[in-house]
Amino acid sequence: MRLSDLQTPALLVAAADLEHNLATMASALPGERLRPHVKAHKCTELARRQLQHGHHRFTCATIREVEGMAAAGLGEDLMLANEVVDATRLGKVVAAGARVTLAVDSATTVEAAVTGGVREVVIDVNVGLPRCGIDPSEAGKLADLARRKGLEVRGVMGYEGHVVGLEEASTRAQMVKPCMELLLRAHSDVGGELISAGGTGTYALNTWANEIQAGSYALMDTAYSKLGLPFRPALSVLATVISVSSGWAVADCGLKALGMDHGNPTVPGGSVWFCSDEHITFASDTDVKVGDRVRVLPAHVDPTVAYHETLHVVEGDEVVEVWPVDLRGW
Amino acid sequence: MRLSDLQTPALLVAAADLEHNLATMASALPGERLRPHVKAHKCTELARRQLQHGHHRFTCATIREVEGMAAAGLGEDLMLANEVVDATRLGKVVAAGARVTLAVDSATTVEAAVTGGVREVVIDVNVGLPRCGIDPSEAGKLADLARRKGLEVRGVMGYEGHVVGLEEASTRAQMVKPCMELLLRAHSDVGGELISAGGTGTYALNTWANEIQAGSYALMDTAYSKLGLPFRPALSVLATVISVSSGWAVADCGLKALGMDHGNPTVPGGSVWFCSDEHITFASDTDVKVGDRVRVLPAHVDPTVAYHETLHVVEGDEVVEVWPVDLRGW
Question: Chain A residues with CB inside 8 Å of B257's CB?
Fold first, then answer.
């Protein structure tokens, strides 16, 4: 199949850039030093490529991601890096033979793990991002509670999400340290093998955690591209120009094909004016005509992929593989 | 099924508010005066309710929406209010017995209609929004071309998308007029029964078009709620509080459950700080605890619905119907 055969909008992954990104990360953080986050690509076939690069533990954000990874035979060591109040479906995944470790940050979520049939947890610690995670000083007590309830506590996790996207590397480096000092303090009370943290923006700076939960590095987006990381933009949305007016053109890639929380996407060689549900209006530096194809680069990979059913892996104009985005939904 | 049985995040539609919205619109614009736009809800069951309220012609934004509406037996008169350069799939829908009218704004898209097997078109006219649509002065010539190629030209469409969302009703009224004067001028050159335009924000002000393409009125969102229209917010995302810290709480409804192009959603009785992929961090005016359920009101209905597989129709705490969001994708 060739690119010209694809219906648009269509999600494309450049095979060579993906391979570069996977190899670069596997060299920096080999094997268990990386626990790739599947939320960024929601695709078990892509996760399989990460496994081939040596990473056999994975991070998930939703129950559906855990179920899908286990069903695809990738359930050797899955961490749901998120709290749930009903772990029944996770318990079924465990009963079916996969290993699932669940984040907990309260007595209620510990109870949910027990009731749902999950046997292993990590204590989720707040390291500065106002989101989930227990106060570091309370982490030891929660671990004690979990152990009393019969759970295996594998360690701690603490996501420095307020740091990973900062453009200046020196600022990122400066800010990771106090976050991880909080996590290590919690870990000294909690114990366990795992100190899990980090993301694509801090994968090389966070030397305190013993596993990094990066996900965006595989596909990248224009937001992360500003950070000067050694990963290449591998993801784009192929769109067809459907209308040309004096001063602008319109292609068929809109709000329902793009995560928009980080702002407008980019059209190389053009300037994006705005997006509508099914349109992108842009001014092009060169002449475009109706029927031309353009590549739209999303600002944020995760919510972009979540809109699409399929990833098309391409080499030049050839579609070499078609991967279902099979971890969508909840 | 009760609300408490639902996995979250879950898309909810309040049955009474939906019925109010459908009845209010059907009373203002009965029958063929409204051509409901299905892009806002992507749900054939909801379209069926619009049919029961007397509207039997529908507007679509994608080929998949046309296919799905026809397959559901709702293909009496479907307009694809968008340009395509490959109309083959539409031609198949026509061959199977549905009526499909396709928007065209260039010789290339006219040719696509002919080649693809579509028999009826409308001339899409630019009335001020920098998107699709031919210059009004060129509309007649394009209609002539289409007729020479054997197509039936049913009239014109021209979407005043730069006006529908303006908060001041007087500004909207003032701005619709020149847009529709352009459309009527084009129509005088094009001819045909249809003068199709408008949206939820101008449904009552646009008295020039003879059919209005409103879609958002059925479910509404916080952006349209600012306009003081007689439609009620009927859509929300049910979320579960999964973590509570000193000063904020976190629920499981994030960027992958919400269209974010119009900004943050709203949590009644709370103040939203930010959304992450699977989280909403908010400060609540009242005490919340882990396991509580909250309703998140999206800022933009269309790209929100497009993330979900199911609409749950609710009366109080009872889920009375479950409708698949069956028109997603392309």
Answer: 330
CATH superfamily of the domain spanning B3-11+232-324: D-serine dehydratase-like domain (2.40.37.20)
pLDDT digits (tens, 9 = 90+) for A56-104: 999 999 999 999 999 999 999 999 999 999 999 999 999 999 999 999 9
Find the CB nearest B105 among A243, A247, A255: A243
Nearest chain A Cα distance for residue B161, angstroms = 9
- CB-defined contacts A:B, below 8 A: 146
Break chain A into its structural domains and give their ranges: 3-11+232-324, 16-219
Regarding pTM above 0.95, the answer is yes
A248 contacts B130? CB cut-off 8 A: yes
Considering the four listed CATH numbers 3.90.1010.10, 3.20.20.10, 3.40.50.720, 3.40.30.10, the one that applies to the domain covering A16-219 is 3.20.20.10
Rounded Cα–Cα distance for residues B68 and B208 (Å): 31
For residues A28, A32, A33, A35, the Cα torsion angle rounded to the nearest 10 degrees is: 100
Partner residue facing B261 (CB), from A244, A255, A309? A255
- Token pair in block for residue B59: 């507007």
Nearest CA in chain A to B254: A303
ipTM, 2 dp? 0.97
Nearest CA of chain A to the CA of B34: how many Å? 20
Quote the tokens at residue B201. 């924000």
